Structures are given as structure tokens and as C-alpha cells.
Amino acid sequence: MRDYVRTLAASAALLSASMALAQQEKPPASKYHQDGLVYAELSKAPQKARAKRNPLRGDPDAVAAGRNLFEQHCTECHGDLAGGGRKGPSLLVEQVQNSEPGTIFWILTNGVVWRGMPVWSKLPEPQRWQLVSYIKSLGVSEPVPSRGPSPKP
């Protein structure tokens, strides 16, 4: 009976240690939403890049084509609706949505390699502008309301 209790205790300790280690190695899914530095790359775009205007601005076909490109190349990291994923940040935040189209184009072209975003410079320029059109069409997402008590009028 003692051997059984020792084995059970050792198994419980091993399971507990394994779970603690797994939690340390796996970043939380919301990591990118909490890390404001992830959006700091936007400010690194040179003024010349920021000043570029999207030649496809206002073209609904560009938005639709950009959505298709996003689904092919971007959803794995940024999520199906661009709200962020385990690998990439949300593109629905003010920092992205209020950026100049040229800044987003510059990020797409140069990537953010140290954060894991690939360089997309081999994607033809019109397709990169289509992606910019789609990203900008998404708008800023509404913040999730807290579950605290409602404010009194």
C-alpha cells in the first residue's frame, strides 16, 4: 500500500511540475494585445514611406482582393478577422488603423523579422496595396466592456 501511495504522490508531483512548465513556455494568447511595443515598428517607417498614398484607395475591388490575399497569407498569424492570434498582433487597434497607408505598406514590404513577420517585398506592389486597402477597411474594433457594475446615470 505504501508503494502505491508513493507512486501516486510522485505522479501528482510530476503532473504539477509538467503543468507549471507548460504554462511558462506557452505565452498567453493575449500577449500581443498587452505588449504596446509590438506596434512601435509603425513609428519606424521613414517619412518618405509614410507619405506614399494608396493608389487603390476607394476601390472596392481592391478591398475584396486584399481580403483574399489576407486569407491566403496573413490569417495564420493575425487571425481570421485580423483580431490577432498566437503569432501576430491585432490589426484592428488604433495604432494600425490610424496609421498612414504608406506606413502599413512599408511594414508589409519590410516585415518585422525580429517579431516573426516575414518580408513581403516579393509580393507584387499592387497586391501589397490591396492588403493595405483591406486592412484599412476593417476599422478600429470596439473595446470589450468590463463586467463590473454599470455606472449610474
Regions with pLDDT < 50 over 5+ consecutive residues?
Answer: 17-34, 144-148
Question: Architecture in CATH?
Answer: Orthogonal Bundle
Q: What is the helical fraction, as a range of percent? A: 40-55%
- Could you give the order of the helices and strands? HHHHHHHH
Total separate domains: 1
Main beta sheet, described?
none
CATH domain topology = Cytochrome Bc1 Complex, Chain D, domain 2
- First and last CA, distance: 65 Å
Radius of gyration computed on alpha carbons: 22 Å
Query: Which CATH first-tier class would you pick?
Result: Mainly Alpha
Shape: elongated
Structural class: mainly alpha
Give a count of the beta strands, DSSP E runs of length 2 or more: 0
Strand coverage percent: under 5%
Helix tally?
Answer: 8
Q: Can you tell me the CATH superfamily? A: Cytochrome c-like domain
